[in-house]
Specification:
With 438 residues, the protein is mainly alpha-helical. It has 20 helices and 3 strands. This is DNTP triphosphohydrolase.
Length: 438
């Protein structure tokens, strides 16, 4: 059997039509899952439902998958070693990368990164266990989502599961901030051993998915920010020293972004250069688009996606002895372009997430999640107000599902609107009919 198409739950084999490829089955299982549908109601930057224009987790995931599939197709033609399939982790199948990109944000709770932060803080303070979005992905794919005949969630192929696994570590290892919960890590580690994956290294498909996620953040979120008026396309805004200082501060304080060698450059000077070039490009396109802002926004986004995606390549990584998916220029890692992308990501973060109105929404979100947690955290009371099907499922899996994790799973699966609805039922004076379907 093809080791890339191995499934953890052998009992589920033989229950499907032979007319479809294994990855086609993975794709169908994923997009037909409730967890995937709920992405349409989860925040990307602005709250889901903020307007018809702005992206949600669902549209973001679709855009990442499109970029990733196209890049995988191009790289497959560009690098001969990929066609030789010398190692299961040194393969770039466009279908696998596409599915992984669609699944990469399933673990995000309602209200974006603020929801993740609050749930993690509550679980750590009260029970010493973490909540982390990437780890929750695997909990959903391998346990919470149910497929008939499977005891392993959606029972996806090994290739797809490892393509989602951009942090190939157990989250309970000392010092790990991202990874996989212990309950799912044992099986992921089992697959990695079967593949002969180097310790700490991700498959090429996982690396490509991760890089394309960053490409989407640094282009699409900025487009939303311009549309919302949070990023003003004029010199007064782009040359404001306060903006530049905030960007520099975010770069310096980001301890997870040291691999691009910020210590080797004058950070304020590079920030000013990137912002100046970005504005100059906007001004030129604005004139070419007959001074129409919407056309200019779309063209700017398309051009930067093209710039980034066109520079994705594969190099040898001497630090790990593995291959690395990154921006490449003349056979070498293009550090300057990586830094440019990081500056644009920070621009979106500083102008959108740090905006005081967005902070108000996040404060409101924190209050709601905390009070939902307080309502459900005591089993004797929580089981009275959590839907019966969830309680029945909990009783079936008590041996591997403690109550705090169960409550976190329930809250994290909510869309923004559903979290507000449940909060209103518990704490508002009026919340509509009690006969509305959950």
């Amino acid at each position: 059997m093809d080791i890339r198409k191995l499934r953890l739950d052998e009992k589920a084999l033989g229950t499907f039509s032979e007319e479809r490829d294994e990855y086609e089955r993975d794709y169908a299982r994923l997009i037909q899952s409730p967890a995937f549908r709920r992405l349409q109601g989860k925040s990307q930057v602005f709250g889901a439902g903020s307007g018809d224009y702005y992206r949600t987790r669902l549209t973001h995931s679709l855009e990442v998958s499109q970029i990733a599939r196209e890049v995988a197709r191009r790289l497959g033609k560009q690098y001969d070693f990929l066609s030789r399939k010398e190692h299961p982790g040194l393969v770039l199948d466009p279908a696998v990368v596409e599915i992984a990109a669609l699944a990469h944000d399933l673990g995000h709770p309602p209200f974006g990164h603020k929801g993740e932060e609050v749930l993690n803080r509550l679980l750590m303070e009260e029970h010493g266990i973490p909540y982390e979005g990437n780890a929750q992905n695997f909990r959903i794919l391998m346990f919470l989502e149910k497929r008939a005949g499977s005891g392993s969630g959606l029972d996806l192929t090994a290739a797809v599961l490892l393509a989602v696994n951009k942090y190939p570590f157990g989250l309970d290892e000392p010092g790990r901030l991202k990874g996989v919960y212990r309950t799912e890590w044992s099986e992921i580690e089992q697959l990695r051993r079967a593949w002969g994956m180097p310790i700490g290294c991700s498959t090429l498909e996982a690396q490509l998915m991760d890089l394309c996620d960053d490409i989407a953040y640094s282009t699409h979120d900025i487009e939303d920010g311009i549309r919302a008026g949070k990023i003003q396309m004029n010199r007064t805004f782009f040359e404001d020293n306060r903006l530049i200082d905030h960007l520099v501060q975010e770069i310096v304080e980001d301890k997870g972004n040291t691999s691009v060698g910020w210590g080797e450059v004058d950070i304020p000077a590079m920030v000013k250069r990137v912002l100046a070039q970005y504005l100059e490009q906007w001004e030129a396109l604005y004139m070419g688009c007959e001074r129409e802002p919407s056309r200019t926004r779309r063209e700017m986004k398309a051009r930067w996606v093209s710039i980034f995606a066109g520079k994705v390549g594969i190099i040898d990584d001497p630090a790990t002895g593995w291959k690395k998916v990154t921006f490449v220029n003349n056979g070498q890692q293009d550090i300057d372009l990586l830094r440019t992308m990081e500056i644009l990501k920070k621009l979106a973060w500083v102008t959108l997430i740090k905006d005081f109105r967005v902070q108000r929404l996040q404060m409101r979100s924190e209050i709601m999640i905390r009070r939902l947690w307080d309502s459900f955290k005591v089993p004797d009371y929580g089981r009275l107000i959590i839907p019966p099907d969830w309680i029945e499922n909990f009783e079936l899996h008590r041996n591997k599902w403690n109550w705090p994790r169960f409550v976190a799973d329930y809250i994290s699966g909510m869309t923004d609107a559903y979290a507000e609805k449940v909060y209103a039922e518990l704490y508002a004076s009026k919340s509509g009919s009690i006969y509305e379907m959950d």
